[in-house]
């Protein structure tokens, strides 16, 4: 019996790369996202080992019903990858849009929390499982315009550590993967409201991480012996580092 992984946000970027990597390693993957045609394309590429699952993680009822709604043979989810998430905007807090802040919280915090709440009891009952979060370096290092996005990822980090504490002795592992600058996904397109030039400028003149780098990290943490839990894994490209404090002078 192969492990079943449920990956949220599998229609793009990290989620699609993780789904491909897991299927390549012999796992079966439930690929969840809102853009069903993307998931269908992934299923056409990867075959029966991938089950497309139309899901909006901000839909409380759909997430709560998920464990019972999965088809027979797909219910024993051993690995949950809480990857669905987004940043919206780079404006300073005093100029930011409240609806964008609320959408980041609804997806990155509330959606991720509900997914975990829905699938964790099954893992504990089976005495094995792994919850992998896609956090960010933004949890650890503030930067101008990162305000609520960084706040959501700080929640993810502390939630993951809290889960780890609760789950001691249950056989369920928890890991927060914290990537830095990563190109080749739709993250910056989404953040810049679809402005392709602004999104491209984020990576201009750099060699950032790739989605495959992140998938490799996820694959590594879940493939480790069951007695070994990586709590947090922070990863940056060589071209990135933390900046200094900002000081306004007269
Ligand atoms: P992408 O924009 O390429 O992918 C985001 C995925 O999330 C999409 O598949 C999207 O699918 C899904 N998603 C968004 N909202 C929802 C929702 N309400 N319900 C279900 N799925 C949703 O971004 P990345 O792959 O780059 O990012 C993935 C994760 O990694 C995010 O949590 C992000 O914060 C984090 N991250 C990204 C970094 C980067 O530099 N790229 C660095 C560090 C962390 P759909 O629209 O089809 O629903
Ligand atoms: C995405 C990485 O540095 O843009 O989480 O916040 S960063």
Name the features.
250 residues, alpha/beta, Rossmann fold, seven-stranded parallel beta sheet, 7 strands, binds NADPH dihydro-nicotinamide-adenine-dinucleotide phosphate, binds 2-hydroxyethylsulfonic acid
Give a brief rundown of this model:
The protein is α/β, with parallel strands linked by helices and 250 residues long. It has eight helices and seven strands. The protein is 43% helix and 16% strand.
Tell me what you see in this structure.
The protein is of the alpha/beta class and 250 residues long. The protein has a single domain (4-180, 212-235), classed as NAD(P)-binding Rossmann-like Domain (Rossmann fold, 3-Layer(aba) Sandwich). Helices cover 43% and strands 16% of the residues. It has 8 helices and 7 strands; from the N terminus they run βαβαβαβαβαβαααβ. It has a 7-stranded parallel sheet with strand order 3-2-1-4-5-6-7, sandwiched between helices. Helix 5 (147-166) links the parallel strand 5 and strand 6 (172-179). The longest helix has 29 residues, at 98-126. The site of NADPH dihydro-nicotinamide-adenine-dinucleotide phosphate has 30 residues, from helix 1, helix 4 and helix 6.
Instruction: Return the average pLDDT rounded to an integer.
Output: 98
CATH first level: Alpha Beta
Tell me what the CATH architecture is: 3-Layer(aba) Sandwich
Report the sheet with the most strands, covering strand number, pairing sense and barrel closure: 7 strands, parallel
Spatial separation of the terminal alpha carbons: 67 Å
Shape: globular
User: C-alpha Rg, in Å?
Assistant: 18 Å
Total tally of structural domains = 1
CATH names the topology as: Rossmann fold
In CATH terms, the superfamily is: NAD(P)-binding Rossmann-like Domain
How much of the polypeptide forms β-strand, as a percent range? 15-25%
**Strand segment tally:** 7
Total count of helical runs of at least 4 residues: 8
Weakly predicted, low-confidence segments: none
Oligomer: single chain
Instruction: State the helical fraction.
Output: 40-55%
Order of helices and strands: EHEHEHEHEHEHHHE
Task: Label the structural class.
Answer: alpha/beta
Each distinct ligand: NADPH dihydro-nicotinamide-adenine-dinucleotide phosphate, 2-hydroxyethylsulfonic acid
């Amino acid at each position: 019996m192969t492990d079943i992984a449920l990956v949220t946000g599998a229609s793009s970027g990290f989620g699609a790369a993780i789904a491909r990597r897991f299927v390549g390693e012999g796992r079966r993957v439930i690929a969840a996202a809102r853009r069903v045609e993307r998931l269908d394309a992934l299923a056409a590429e990867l075959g029966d080992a991938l089950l497309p699952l139309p899901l909006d993680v901000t839909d409380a009822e759909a997430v709560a019903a998920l464990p019972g709604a999965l088809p027979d043979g797909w219910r024993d989810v051993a690995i949950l990858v809480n990857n669905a998430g987004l940043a919206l905007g780079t404006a300073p807090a005093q100029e930011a849009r409240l609806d964008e802040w609320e959408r980041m919280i609804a997806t990155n915090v509330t959606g991720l929390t509900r997914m975990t709440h829905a699938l964790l009891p099954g893992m504990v009952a089976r005495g094995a499982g792994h919850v992998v979060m896609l956090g960010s370096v933004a949890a650890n290092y503030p930067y101008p315009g990162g305000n609520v996005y960084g706040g959501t990822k700080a929640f993810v980090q502390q939630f993951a550590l809290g889960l780890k504490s609760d789950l001691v002795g249950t056989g369920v592992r928890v890991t927060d993967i914290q990537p830095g600058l990563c190109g080749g996904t739709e993250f910056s397109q989404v953040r810049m409201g679809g402005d392709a030039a602004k999104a491209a400028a984020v990576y201009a003149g750099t060699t950032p991480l790739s989605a495959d780098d992140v998938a490799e990290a996820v694959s590594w943490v879940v493939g480790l012996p069951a007695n070994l839990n990586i709590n947090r894994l922070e990863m940056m490209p060589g071209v990135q580092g933390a900046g200094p404090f900002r000081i306004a002078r007269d």
